[in-house]
Structures are given as structure tokens and as C-alpha cells.
Amino acid sequence: MASRVTLQDVARHAGVSRTTASFVLTGRRDMRISVDAEQRVLRAARELSYRPNLMARGLRTRTTHTIGLISDTVTTEPFAGDIVRGAVNAALRHDNLLVIGETSGDRGVEERVVQDMLDRGVDGFLYASTWTRVSRLPAVLRGHPFVWLNCLPRGRASASAVIPDERSAGTLAASALTAVGHERIALVGVPSPDVWAAGERLAGIRAAGVTVAATVECDWWPEPAYTAVSSFLATGPSVTGLICLNDRIALGAYQAAQEAGLRVPDDLSVVSFDDSDLAAWLRPSLTSVALPHAELGGRAVDLLLSPPASPLVERVPMRLHERASIAPPSS
Amino acid sequence: MASRVTLQDVARHAGVSRTTASFVLTGRRDMRISVDAEQRVLRAARELSYRPNLMARGLRTRTTHTIGLISDTVTTEPFAGDIVRGAVNAALRHDNLLVIGETSGDRGVEERVVQDMLDRGVDGFLYASTWTRVSRLPAVLRGHPFVWLNCLPRGRASASAVIPDERSAGTLAASALTAVGHERIALVGVPSPDVWAAGERLAGIRAAGVTVAATVECDWWPEPAYTAVSSFLATGPSVTGLICLNDRIALGAYQAAQEAGLRVPDDLSVVSFDDSDLAAWLRPSLTSVALPHAELGGRAVDLLLSPPASPLVERVPMRLHERASIAPPSS
DNA sequence: TTGCTGTGCTAACCCGATTTAGCACGGAGC
DNA sequence: GCTCCGTGCTAAATCGGGTTAGCACAGCAA
Questions:
Q1: B191 assigned to some structural domain
Q2: Which residues are in the HTH lacI-type domain (chains A, B) (predicted)?
């Protein structure tokens, strides 16, 4: 494992000083370098396949082309992986690398990870949440460049934020049902104040002009959804369409509908949110509004590296992925 | 954003030279430092909450306490996230951070990412694959410390490798069926030579003394599994148990069984591999052998940071997660 | 007194880059 | 001949640590 080629080697090879080599390679035009010397340096660098030591450079310039991602969970949800992927790829496009830290939501771990990253001179942070939610800024982050990723500060934003446009998503989902004639529609899931998306989606549904005929309250998992929808189908008002607040709820709803002898979409249309893998796997496949996780990660990196004049909250559009779970109401 | 406290500041505050401060803080006992001076330095460091600049340190020591993860896909599969999580947390335990790179399997991108990491002085690499498979070592990695993560070199290993113990997993799955009396068992999925796990699982199944009554060939996705199992149930030999090569196949099998009027587990027992989220969500919930992804990531970090005397291949045990999809055969 | 030994510390160099300050040289103008 | 200016470069400082070599002093033996 031969030791790396240094700037010194390049300079020697080109017959100039380290200073000159540095000027040429960092492209500083304010210093007077002859075309000849410049060519010799560039050639030497190429021939030796010189790569600058970014630690040494960072020591001087205080930039490392490295971004820290602080996440509550890297992967409780598969979603989180998409955020990371979007961020990693965007970082690479900007010639940056991503170092990641998982905090499990623990403030202590959070502080430690941020410090560990600062010790390594990261240029800035992505402060990410798996679930879109309102969050508080950890004190250690104060004074350092960062972007809210899939979360929002309580009050006015001191930094930019990237979140999915859940409100429009609500409108999309509702319109997918009304467009084919559904009028009696139930909402499945519980619009908890904790879950920011729930409120937004509901607002979007209302904005679409839909009056929800019934709300089936349940936690956002297949089992509770199955139970709640089963009893709703047995005793609740009759509906022709279901808006499920996520795909896992939709899975529970499918199971309940099937046991109740209802066929999707002939007897019951279903639309959902998230567009997880599940949506494509169910029979019939599930129409769902996709969370743009990779794009969230990507845009957050963009905003961190090319910050706007003043902080902005960017709402990334969500798209309806139409599949086979919606049909016009029968009769 | 006040500039960081440096070793110089600590030394000044303690009334000693930078050298002495460095000796105390790095814990070198071969230099003679009086107890008094030592205490003053430690106190100063504490009071100023000094944290060493790891770039500066790394420049000298050539270690950065940073590990690079090279992955084909950070998240095509939710699994990948688990590997990352396991690695991140293990790294943190060892006072290391993880920087990640995604290559999409592209050798060019791979080389670039590895170089980018080397430029930042990472101490070593985890060369990871989402799917367990035999892999070739990228040339850029040669000469640097690394560990194979969820993949294996073709021949003799020049570095350690961490893989799931798929063979025992096969035995576990098969035994789960035979233990309650199943004798006519079908295997669903296609034992492709590309997919290392398939061969191992099959070998494990055979090692359990099970003769597979039929093999239902299909790709490892719900839709093709549904089609293949449907036609098998209609025309194939009668079986009481199904071993599905992953959970997505099991989902397809559930759908097929249901349409054929067979009830799981009363008429048909099902066991599967992976133990993805899906397994817990299906009705009845699915018994599955869990892929230990987080543990793979964690062990890989351990092996990288505390390398054994000679390279070893570590097979991480897989555990059977028993749920409701297995019952004794009827009659 | 001289020499030796051990204790406790520090000056100076090194890692590999960037950056500031300024030197050497040639030609033009007076 | 002397100054002045522009051109083209480099010496040296700097970033913040780790590390080597060696200095100053005290105590003790001969």
C-alpha cells in the first residue's frame, strides 16, 4: 500500500513550488501563473493521479465536503432508507459524502452524534425524521448550518425545511374517488394531533369538497385497522369508498372487506397513502399517494449546499399512483 | 459561533506546554508528567469542554475513527436499512462514525465512492450487498482494510466475511413443518444459482431429512408466486405444507390458497424466510425465519475494528419467528 | 567539586494542504 | 543610471493536533 501522492510530489514533478501547484490545482486566477507552468502542474497531477488529502485541506479551509445526517431512526420504517438514499445520491452529485447517525429519538445520543460529527468537521447537517412531524431543534445544532428534513420547527423557521405536500395529497386521494362517482366515503385511521400528516391529509380531503361520511378510528397498523373496519362494515353507515391513512391500514381494510364478503374494488373502492411496496403486492393492487422520500432527502441536500437568501419551507409534491383498487360505485 | 477550543487553549489554561497537554489527554504514560500537572490539564480540558479536532489528529495519526460503507443499494430492499442501522450503532459503540455510499452495483460509481472515502481518510470499509451473494473485490479496495458484508469472495477469503447462516435456516424452516407432522411438503420459489441463499436453504431443508414432494418454480415476488401456486394447487400433487423462499412469495401463496378455498393453517401450513414486516401483518400471521440484517452490520463492524488473526467467515444464526401459519396437518 | 541519574517538562518538527507576504527579474520612462 | 511597474513565482506561516529529541534541575555518590 504505497503512500499517497502529495501536492509536494506533484510540485516536484512539475518543477515548481508547492504554492504554485496549489494555485493551479485550486484554480485561483488571481495569482499570476504562466501558461507553461500551469500545464506542467496539470500534467504532473494527471500522471501521478494526484488526489488531494481532504483532511489536510479541511484543516485549513474548514470545509470537508461532508454532510451529517441526524435521524431518529435509520430504518424502523423502510421509508427512512429512501430518505437516506435520496440524500446520499444528491450529496454525491454535489461531490459530498454523507455520514449518518441514528439517535432513536434520544436527546443524549443526538447530542453525542452531532458532536462526533462536528469533531470531524462536517459542513452541515440534515436533521431528519422518519415521520413528518413538528420537532424541536437540538441545542448542539444551534449555530451550525442545517436543514429540517421531513420535520418542521414549532414556530418560524430559522433554517429551511423540506416536507411532503400532504395537503395536496389529501386532495389527490379524495379526488381519485369522487372522480369516478363516489359520494359516501369513510376515512380510516385516527387523525391524531401528533401525526402532522393526518391533519394535512384531512384538510386536503375537505379541500376536495368531500364530506367524510364516517371516520373509522384506529391505529395505523393492519391488525387494529382490520378490527375497526370489520366492525364498521358490520354496523356503520354504508359507504362505497374508503380513504385509508396509510397502506398498512389499507391492508387491514382489505382483510376486513374480504371477510365481510365485499370485493375490492367492485363493492368497495380503496385509496391510501404512502405507496409502500405493499401497495403493489396486494390483490387487487392498491391505489396510493406516494411519499416522495428520496426526493425529500435530495432536496434537503440541495438546500443545505445552496442555501436560499432566507429560510424557506419546501413542500415536495406527492403523486397518485393509480392501480386496481378503485372502480365506479356499483348501481 | 465561537471558534472551537484547541489544545493550545487547554495548555495555556493549565499553565503547561501543548506537548504536555497532549501527553496527558492522549494518556501516554511513558512520558513523565507530575500528578499535579496532569490534574491541571484534565481540569482545564473539562472546564473548557475541549474536544480534539479529529481532522488535525487524523492528519498525523492516519486514523479518523470513520468507516466507509459501500453498498450496492442502500434501500431497494427495506433490509438494507437494517444492515445500515446495525453498522451505524456498532460503529457508535466503537466511537466510530459511518459514511455511506451507494453504487447501484456500478463499478465506476463504486470506484469513485471508494476514492472519495479514501480522500477523507476512512480507516476501513464494509463492502455490503443487499442480497447475499458471491461477489468480486473491486480493485480500488485492494490494500485497504475491509470486511465482506452479506457477500462472499469467489475463492479463498483475503478478508473476513459476515453472512447469514442460511443452511441452518433451511433446517429450521423444514423442521417447523415436520415437527407437527407434515410429510408432503412443497417448495415455492426458484433455486437459482445466482441467489446464494436459495441453494443454502435447500441444502438445509434436505439436511432436516425432508424430501420435497414438489418444487413450484416462480420468481420471488407476490404476483408470480400467486400465479404459480394457483396452478400448482389446481393440478399438482396434494401437499399439506409449503416452504416459501421468502415472505413475498408467501404473500402470493396466501392469495392463491385463499382463492382455492384453502385455509391457512388448517388446510395448508406455510413457513417462509426473511421475516419482513409483512410476516406479522398477514392473516394469519406468517411463521418465518428472520434474516439477521442488523446483526450482520454490527458484526461486520466488530470484525473490521478488531480483526481476527486470520480472515474468517462468520455465519450469523437465523432464528425462526413462530406465528400462526403452521398447524398439524388435518386428518 | 565532578559526574551520574532520574524527574518533569518543552522546543521543534511533522502530517498535507491553503494562503499571505514579498522577492527577483525584465522592460519602460525620465 | 535610477526608479517604477508588472510578471511570475516562492518562502514561510497557518490549520490543530501527535511525536521526537533533548534541556534544566535536583539529588546523590565518589
A1: yes
A2: 5-61
- How high is the mean pLDDT of chain B? 94
Asked if residue A131 belongs to a domain, the reply is yes
- Encoded amino acid at B250, one letter: A
Query: Whole-angstrom Cα distance, residue A192 to residue A36?
Result: 69
* Nearest partner of B272 among B180, B177, B192, B208, judged by Cα: B177
* Alpha carbons within 13 A on the beta-carbon side of B88: 27
**Are both A133 and A272 inside the same structural domain?**
no
Nearest-angstrom CA–CA distance, A249 and A224: 8
Instruction: Copy the grid coordinates of residue B260.
Output: 382455492
Residue B274's closest CA among B315, B318, B313?
B318
Same domain, A94 and A235: no
Residues 6+ positions from B37 with CB-CB distance below 8 Å: B14, B16, B20, B24
**Partners of B319 in the β-ladder:** B290
Mutate to test the interface with A, among B5, B64, B119 (most CBs of A within 10 A): B119
Is A328 domain-assigned? no
Specify the number of domains making up chain B.
3
Whether B244 and B255 map to the same domain: the answer is yes
Set of chain B residues whose Cβ sits within 8 Å of the Cβ of A82: 75
Q: Over the stretch A63-77, which tens digit does the pLDDT of each residue have?
A: 999 999 999 876 667
Name the percent of chain A in helix, strand, coil, to the closest 5: 40, 20, 40
C-alpha cell at A316: 415536495
The model carries a pTM of 0.94
Cβ contact A273:A169 at 8 Å:
yes
Where in the sequence is the domain holding A200, given as residue range(s)? Answer: 166-291
Nearest residue for C6, CA–C1': B32
User: Does residue A227 form part of some domain?
Assistant: yes
Rounded Cα–Cα distance for residues B194 and B199 (Å): 9
* B64: number of Cβ within 10 Å: 20
Segments of chain B with pLDDT less than 50 = 1
How is A51-83 classified by DSSP, letter by letter?
A: ---HHHHHHHHS--SEEEEEES-SSSSHHHHHH
Same domain, yes or no: A118 and A149: yes
Taking an 8 Å cut-off on Cβ atoms, the answer to whether A100 and B98 are in contact is: yes
| Nucleotide nearest B61, from its CA to each C1' | D18
